[in-house]
């Protein structure tokens, strides 16, 4: 464009002329087909793609489509082979009425580059409508005094077809008295009448029954029949006679209501009442004529009742009957032919079909925005239409075919300057006075997809208790995209990876639209303590852009495992030998148990259950060691066999427990065999080893719990110290206190810890940690809105979530 401006106006005009010439030659093609009405679905019409010079492979890429005025589902194009075929039933009489010409006008539109074609499909008439008489029976009253050769008008049949298919021939059933007389003309339909061939005698034949058959000229021929009931009368033997058989009138469609159309003149040779004439419309006059015209029965004046419309009906054929007042009455008929003259009373009609809305700001010059078609129902100069566009820049109208225009981009767009255009297309006819119509076209300038979705923070931490129900909502991620419309529609998905031997998608899922993260199955702390994965956010732009956020899901332990006894204390085992001579505090046996849980849930305590109805037992059990020892020196009053029941329970909520039964046999010093002595020494050494294992187990549980708390506090402190301006946070010395029913153990660590709240200065808090604490009342609300909770808590960078 810069080279053309420097080159001068001549080069630009030459280039524009060549462009318009190419568009006109490419878009002004016209193809004509014909198809018979009532053709079956799928009937071949024509190879439209081949006839328009289009390749079959480019029909879909160039967005080939067909549109038509009125009903658009009659014809369809198969994009695989380029064949135009019949899609639904075509009824020529319904589509065009009795018009001699009936065509379906199709508009074929392709893009890249844009082209426009006009296809005309002529609908051929077939003989699918039989002749129809308005009534099944026509009654005629004929006096016996009528002379031979007298004519008695009959109402003919109507055929909805055209051409040869509507050319009717009439036959009358054999009769000695009547023959059929047919009068035909070029412009009017055939006039039928019965001609009297034999003098009637009412006393001999008071009534005659004949049948009139109408046969059309189609192949095969179709017929319609009406019964003629003729009653022979006396006296009044002269029918009224019109001064002319046909009255011709030309009326402008703009004449006012009540205007006199014509005055009919008829005379009757009879005298008196038999010579008085009244005028009526024929019984076969359609409803639209009765609505638009009125006849005075006494004077024969026909006046206009409604408003004439040339575009709706160009002419009227009115059947008028003149009936005298004799007894019986006699009648005759004539026709009034009214031709309507056109006036410029219809404004042009505009139809805008948008193609490329909204328009990208990077659209090249010459891009087709919409197609505009204009029409005017008037004829001659009243129907000639021209189009104009305001404002002119940066668009213009290009004529592609008669009464068809393309709205194209004339100069480059700049969305930053203006993102919306309101265009007005004006169509004006050449009538006098001229009439016009306008149509508005809204053009939106769309942006390109240049912004990826972003998350508020790169990583979130979520706490979930194990044994959660399947489908539990554990977190909601949310990303924001700065683009508009579909470029800002964000969808979420998991970044798939393997977790051990299983896929990540078997553990969690994310809702594509809301970003809600769900646990698909119950999580097991003993199997999986930490699940780390990424959620991807991708917009709907072309090409799509995306980003990802990391979620750390910590699975918290619940007390879902009861203590398990270890042999030989698993149930009622074999008896233990105890010397009666042992003193107080002597360890005689040991109950061993383990718990698959962790933390408090795996911390076991032992309790000796009192025997029902028995004296106080001389034995006791260590609260955390499970060692059974004597509380006093044994004597002869103690039973030789002692049955002890030990309750082993953990510290979870609710606590789970199991019982162990220990059998002790009290023996004197001289009663114990040597083998028993060896076994006792071996048992004592084994119990000492188990005592050491139990102590180590308690130490390991405390160490693991302390390490977990220390890791979480250190992580929080590092994240909070990385963002010093995110809230009113100050240094503190948190103290971790773990308590139980029997005592407490504590752990403290000097560190900088930010505790952010909505009110007041930073505080140093005492933090109590207990895995079995009940959930807080607002925990579920925090899970639903992690972003809002982050804002209310001072915008601390790390995010924690607990799913209960």
Automatic annotation (TrEMBL):
Compositionally skewed regions (Basic and acidic residues) per UniProt: 782-791
Predominant localisation class: membrane
Database matches in Gene3D superfamilies: Cadherins (2.60.40.60)
Bilayer topology annotation: Single-pass membrane protein
UniProt entry tagged with the keyword Transmembrane helix: yes
Signal sequence extent: 1-29
Superkingdom per UniProt: Eukaryota
InterPro entries named among the record's database cross-references: Cadherin-like_dom, Cadherin-like_sf, Cadherin_CS, Cadherin_N, Protocadherin/Cadherin-CA
Stretches assigned to the Cadherin domain: 27-133, 134-242, 243-350, 351-455, 456-565, 585-675
Keyword line: Calcium, Cell adhesion, Glycoprotein, Membrane, Repeat, Signal, Transmembrane, Transmembrane helix
Membrane-spanning intervals of the chain: 695-718
Region of interest: Disordered: 756-804
PANTHER family for the chain: CADHERIN-87A, PROTOCADHERIN ALPHA-1
UniProt protein name: Cadherin domain-containing protein
Natural source organism: Pipistrellus nathusii (Nathusius' pipistrelle)
Lineage: Eukaryota, Metazoa, Chordata, Craniata, Vertebrata
